[in-house]
């Protein structure tokens, strides 16, 4: 964002203060004052553009128009490791019949805390490679498994050893909390 807007300029004059309901200074300046301020440098964020087609309306007289939208997104989401998904069909071989401990995050795409936790699960997957398998289960796509294990709140992280549930952590917790739970079963 800092590359797009390096600085901004705004003008102030006695008349603009009056318009805002403020008293003019005792001795108004002859000309308007120009203030120039620099924006702070920001790293880790970028602007992502997308265009959205608008449907024709009565005001546009059936002309197709497009609106360009921008959003500020975190670059961390692009660099985070992708955590493999598990579904109803793959639950048995990947989790219940796995050798060693398995961490499963029960999540949904609309859940903000769940999306915050996914990069942490990716880091844990990398940190414990070869010792721990990490998966994510979308509770909207596989509600039967979520019901089977009594998932009532997401995000919920469960640790399975030899197909048996050993521990669960509910909510978006710090990485240190998850690390302490994992260390008990390694």
What is the radius of gyration computed over CA atoms, rounded to a whole number of angstroms? Answer: 26 Å
Widest sheet: strand ordering: 6-5-7-8
Mean pLDDT equals: 76
Report how far apart the termini are: 43 Å
Main sheet overview: 4 strands, mixed
Overall geometry = globular
* Topology order in helix (H) and strand (E) letters: EHEEEHHEHEHEEH
**Strand runs, count:** 8
What proportion strand? 25-35%
Structure annotation, total helices: 6
Structure class: alpha+beta
Q: State the helical fraction.
A: 25-40%
Low-confidence stretches: 1-22, 52-60
Protein architecture, described:
The chain is an alpha+beta fold and 186 residues long. The radius of gyration is 26 Å and the shape is globular. A hairpin with a 2-residue loop joins strand 7 (156-161) and strand 8. The chain has a 4-stranded mixed β-sheet with strand order 6-5-7-8, with helices on one face. The chain contains 6 helices and 8 strands. It has helices spanning 14-19, 76-79, 88-96, 112-127, 143-148, 175-183; strands at 7-12, 33-38, 45-54, 65-74, 101-107, 133-138, 156-161, 164-170.
Summarize the structure.
This protein has 186 residues and is an alpha+beta fold. Helix content is 27%, strand content 31%. It starts with 6 loop residues before the first strand and ends with a helix.
Question: Could you name the key traits of this structure?
Answer:
186 residues, Thioredoxin_domain, two-stranded antiparallel ribbon, globular, alpha+beta, transport, four-stranded mixed β-sheet, 6 helices
Layout of helices and strands, plus pairs?
Layout (H helix, E strand, L loop, with lengths): L6 E6 L1 H6 L13 E6 L6 E10 L10 E10 L1 H4 L8 H9 L4 E7 L4 H16 L5 E6 L4 H6 L7 E6 L2 E7 L4 H9 L3
Parallel strand pairs: 5-6
Antiparallel strand pairs: 1-2, 3-4, 5-7, 7-8
């Amino acid at each position: 964002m800092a590359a797009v807007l390096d600085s901004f300029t705004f003008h102030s004059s006695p008349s603009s203060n009056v318009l805002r309901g403020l008293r003019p200074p005792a001795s108004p300046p002859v000309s308007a004052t120009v203030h120039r301020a620099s924006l702070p440098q920001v790293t880790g964020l970028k602007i992502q553009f997308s265009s959205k087609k608008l449907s024709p309306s009565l005001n546009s007289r059936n002309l197709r128009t497009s609106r360009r939208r921008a959003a500020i997104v975190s670059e961390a989401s692009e660099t985070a490791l992708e955590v493999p998904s598990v579904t109803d069909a793959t639950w048995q071989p990947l989790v219940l019949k796995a050798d060693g401990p398995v961490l499963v995050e029960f999540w949904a795409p609309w859940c903000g805390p769940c999306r915050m936790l996914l990069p942490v699960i990716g880091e844990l997957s990398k940190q414990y490679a070869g010792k721990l398998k990490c998966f994510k289960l979308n509770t909207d796509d596989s509600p039967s498994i979520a019901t089977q294990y009594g998932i009532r709140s997401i995000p919920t992280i469960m640790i399975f050893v030899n197909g048996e549930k050993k521990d669960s952590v509910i909510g978006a917790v710090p990485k240190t909390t998850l690390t302490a739970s994992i260390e008990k079963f390694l």
